[in-house]
Amino acid sequence: MSKAKRYDPENQLLNTVKTGLKGILLFLMPLPVLLAAIIHLVKGHIFASLTAGGLYAGFMVAAIVARHGFKLESQFKQKKLAKAPTTPFKSVAAIILAITTGLTAFLLSDYKLFASILIGFVTILGFYLAYGLDPRRDKTGNISLGVSADEVFEALEAAEIKIDIIEKARKNIGNYEFDQHLKRIVDKARDILTLIEEDPKDLGRARKFLKVYLDGTARVAESYAKTHERDATTEILDSNFQEVLNSIETTFDEQHKKLLENDQFDLDVKIEVLKTQLKHI
Predict the structure, then answer these.
(1) Three-state SS for 54?
(2) Largest Cα–Cα distance in the chain?
(3) CA 110/CA 88 separation, integer angstroms
(4) pLDDT tens-digit readout, 23-61
(5) How far is 274 from 231, CA to CA, in rounded Å?
(6) Quick one: CA dihedral 91, 95, 96, 102, positive or negative?
(7) What share of the chain is helix, strand, coil (3-state, %, to 5)?
(8) In sequence order, what are the beta bridge partners of 82?
(9) CA 264 to CA 259: how far, in whole Å?
(10) 3-state secondary structure of 280
(11) Domains of the chain by residue range
């Protein structure tokens, strides 16, 4: 298995901030339309106010849809293996924006019909020049014979769901020591996912470990978090939870090395031990 870059939460945060700022002009540019709606309302021009308000709402819908498209695109670009978004949200946003802009020109700015339609087409062109097209093709990386792209995508998506469950449980537990354990576990899990993205043919070897590790951890973390929220934890439960978290971390570190060393037999033995420990929580 090839070496992969370690999951970097700081870089993830930076990408999230960049994505959040992208397209901010789509929210700012229609402000004059909102101002026009307010002015018409003050003057008692109800129909004109409602028209301007409706157009402003259209601009906001376009901006929100585009923002979602930018988020999906950012996630797509960050991964070595990823499915292209099934819905072209950026294109949908561009169409909504073009129609709304054309209607604004025709209804509020007294442009002729042909000129308004032309403005709409120019808007679509400007949007694509500024933000580009939606991703269209899946990123299959180094997927080779022995494993299909769908298998890899399915395994990675299932793992991400389990990681989200662990993250949610971590935030709800409110115990610093457990919080740090679970944070390290999540980071280690993401390291494994990155390794699989780097070398998908190893999915067959990592699948069993990922399933036991993530499913078991997500199950016990979620169960403990619910018990903690009800103030029903006991010293014995806390001790058992602490023990299994320690075991998961240790086992993960050991088996991460085994995955790199292609030692399948020892990996299976350790997984069976971890299975037994998880059943006691």
Answers:
(1) helix
(2) 80
(3) 32
(4) 888 999 999 999 999 999 999 999 999 999 999 999 999
(5) 27
(6) positive
(7) 80, 0, 20
(8) 139
(9) 7
(10) coil
(11) 9-131, 149-278
